[in-house]
Write a structure and sequence with these properties.
alpha/beta; 2 domains; Dihydrodipicolinate Reductase, domain 2; six-stranded parallel beta sheet; globular
Length: 339
């Protein structure tokens, strides 16, 4: 086949990253349309990408039909209908995390993609980051012995858009921010989470308590896995100081550290200002290579008719852990994850 033609559904921050990665770094693809319910935003991104077709309604784009796949970056509560409709229209689907809001919707999305013979890949870009890939290989080679405990830190510099503050629309900050951490834990341990126990609080955004009483900006999750391993996630957003994504893996023979808040291997010190470091300021910068690689993989899976390494089932597993953790926050109990 020729170039894989892409329709971007959503024209916000993440869509812009994906759009330019497709245009600049992946010559086997072509962005041919942009969709956003705010037409001015869609037009702006389309102009920046040199794309002629713009739609306010994704269903009109599907009716237009002149593309092979969609990249879905809209708010979480819209993922289910968009993915189902795209699959039924015969379009391959790249869907940003979290996959959706509940397991019933996730099952429907996975089933429709399978039924219609289209690919479904979820946007867990850490699995395509060179550092994470190397760490995974080294763990599997046994360089730290048997993996015993994994700790994942996920902290964002600023609040996401307002819809994400409503747990009914986003799944909470554990879904919005820590979906990557849940996936990373299960990827490294090669096992599903069996139980979770979570605590959370709203430390930085007290003004949101009235409108969104279940909102939290900081959370800690303790987990156990079916293969006997243990896991910890600490999540906080907004933290202000930068974008911070790190993993620590404790083995029977050693320890491994993945990631660093420092953005460059550069530091300097002066008498007046002490030690200075350059930190990552955004997820775009920290996982630049991962974002490119995940889309290249998606395009390759279409061209070569292979299964994506990050599937709808992976998105579903992360979602199940998020749901259980949110329930644990509300009940104060250690809970078994229901898959």
């Amino acid at each position: 086949m020729g170039k894989v033609r892409i329709c971007l559904i959503g024209a916000g921050r993440v869509a812009k990253v994906h759009g330019f990665n497709l245009k600049v770094h992946i010559p086997s693809s072509e962005v041919v349309a942009v969709v956003d319910n705010q037409l001015s935003i869609a037009r702006k991104l389309a102009e920046e990408l040199g794309v002629a077709r713009v739609f306010k309604d994704y269903q009109k784009a599907l009716h237009w039909d002149k593309f092979d796949a969609v990249v879905v970056t809209t708010p979480t509560f819209t993922h289910h209908p968009i993915v189902v409709d795209a699959a039924q229209a015969g379009k391959h689907v790249f869907c940003e995390k979290p996959i959706t809001l509940n397991l019933k919707e996730a099952d429907s999305m996975i089933e429709e993609c399978q039924k219609n013979g289209v690919k479904l890949q979820i946007g867990f870009m850490r699995r395509f980051d060179p550092e994470f890939i190397l760490a995974k290989r080294k763990v599997e080679e046994g360089v730290i012995g048997e993996l015993l405990l994994i700790k994942s830190t996920g902290r964002g510099p600023g609040l996401p858009p307002e819809w994400a503050w409503d747990i009914q629309k986003s799944g909470g900050m554990l879904a919005e921010v820590a979906s990557h951490d849940f996936d990373a834990l299960m990827w490294f341990t090669q096992s599903r989470l069996e139980t979770v126990e979570a605590i959370a609080a709203n430390y930085r955004c007290p003004d949101l308590k009235i409108r969104y009483p279940r909102f939290y900006d900081t959370a800690v999750v303790l987990g156990t896995f079916y293969n006997g391993k243990m896991g910890v996630i600490d999540m906080s957003c907004p933290v202000g100081y930068g974008y911070d994504a790190r993993v620590e893996l404790l083995g029977s023979e050693g320890v491994m550290f993945v990631g660093d808040v420092r953005g460059k291997n550069l530091s300097w010190s002066t008498r007046d200002k002490g030690m200075n470091l350059l930190q990552y300021l955004s997820w775009r910068e920290r996982f630049k290579e991962g974002y490119i690689a995940e889309l290249q993989h998606f395009i390759n899976s279409i061209i070569k008719n292979t299964s994506p390494l990050v599937s709808g089932e992976d998105g579903r597993r992360s979602l199940a852990a998020v749901i259980a953790s949110n329930c644990s926050i509300q009940t104060g109990k250690k809970l078994r994850v229901t898959y």
